[in-house]
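Record ABC transporter, 572 aa.
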Amino acid sequence: MQTTDDATPPHSLADWKVLFPYWKSEEKWWAWSLLGGTIGLSVLYVQSAVWFGAWYHRFFDAFFAGEVGRCLGMLPFYLLVTLGSVGVHATQTYLTQVLSMRWRLWNTKVYLRQYLSEEAYYRLEHGPNRADNPDQRIADDLSQMTVQTLKLGLDAIDAVTTLLSFAVVLWNIGGVLSFDWHGHHFHIPGYLFLGAVLTSLVASGILERFGAPLIGANYRQQHFDADLRAGLMDVRRNSEQIAFYGGENAEQLRLSGYLTHIATNWRTVVRYTWRVNFISEFYTGVATIPLWLMLAPKAMAHALSFGLYSQINSAYTQVRISLEWFIFNYADLATLRSVLQRLGEFERVVSQSSRSGIVRFASETPVVQIRDLTLDRPDGAPIARIGDLTIQAGERWLVRGPSGSGKSTFLRALAGLWRHGRGEVSFNMRQAMFLPQRSYVPSGTLRQALSYPATPDHYDTAFCQQALEAVNLAGYGHRLDEAADWGAVLSPGEQQRLAVARALLFRPAILFLDEATSALDDVNERRLYEALLFFLPHTTCVSVAHHDALRVFHDREIVLGSGKAAFSALEK
Ligand SMILES: Nc1ncnc2c1ncn2[C@@H]1O[C@H](COP(=O)(O)OP(=O)(O)OP(=O)(O)O)[C@@H](O)[C@H]1O
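=>
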């Protein structure tokens, strides 16, 4: 598993690009319609608030003048508008949620497609440019991105509409501030609105100054949480090995290391969240004081009725709240920026071309052509020079050499997984199959595991049972439709036999085996190779193996050693 370093990459404008593709996709009509509906409802909702402001003015003036009859007459309309505005608000939330889910699903499908194409999932784990914990990025970050972006975006649109609507009201009913100072006469129209803007700007500036480190801390927090989760998954996946080694203390130490990172960074998050909360809540508490000060001249001149004050207060509060959008959403904005950063990083790594170094061409023949092939390490240091080699259809080659000489790397290069080095490789890739040393056994039914990567209905039961029998797994023939965690149930040797049974079902034109029978006893290993010869007599075969006993099943060999490859025919 990869772990995260402590550095937070700089935030780049390019990260915001991950937000756009959905709005230009085949779903764009749905997306824009839902967004348009949501914004329309939001404008309607704000307009109802403007109406309530004016209604309060009339109602309280009548109320404090003791005109109870007029007040009662105004109530039915009030109830009706309340009902409408509540309905508008609930429908807006509903549309937002629908849009959020559609956006998330679309993005997740795109990311999964990118992740599972051109072996990006492999490059992310083994390549020189990595992005840690792709599972978290696809499952959690995408969900957060859509939910947060819509929430913040719609809140921002709400804020702008509210600001525009109430700024007019506040400007009109707030009047003009006129005073003399040092022999000069001042005349400030819309001074209540200007006062609200100034107060909010000062508060936002203070918040940015004291809260900025929260963005980096949030970014790191997501990394560290993902590291812990991946560490726990490692324990789950390797529980048996850990139990055999008695590795509980080592695991405890390793997981505690992740926890220490979380705790240290969490302290930073908590400290800055405290600051941000303190500043924004203190501001909320004192924000009406400037209004009272600004209204004092009107009150002293007895030019302020309770109805007027109530309307001014409501308009001032709305203007203030909409200007405070940044203040109230600072923490969410910080989280969104770090989520976008992680997704941008993922996109960059996934989209990096894997077409470098060793080049692979697809051909239609079962002949494997290798031209001027050199295998290097990722840092450019040489592993082995293979040179030119043609493996004719039906030939069987054994690849031998000391540990670390580059045998597996050679097969990885043929499979297109190893790009470090140079040269060309071509063969019929659609008709080729690679069997690695550690077989992959997906959970589900045994039929699923056996047919992998084909679908479970691809081969009929009799054919599956015949393949199992050929690899000495006849005892499992009646359990084909039994669902289990077969990767844990089958022994490593049985898993290797299952993998060879897959090859018997798939009938590849070219079969590559990388120590694919290494966990087996001599008898079973011989039996597997006999089965391969019997059932796939025309298949080209390239096997990496240490056991000399396998020489009889091959007619040529490649011996790797001292950075070179030697080719020779094998005596039977
Ligand atoms: N991802 C990697 N990053 C850096 N070096 C690597 C990587 N994978 C393999 N190597 C190096 O490449 C060399 C060849 O490795 P390879 O696995 O091909 O050896 P091998 O001959 O198959 O060994 P064995 O018989 O032990 O399986 C080794 O020195 C190994 O350390």
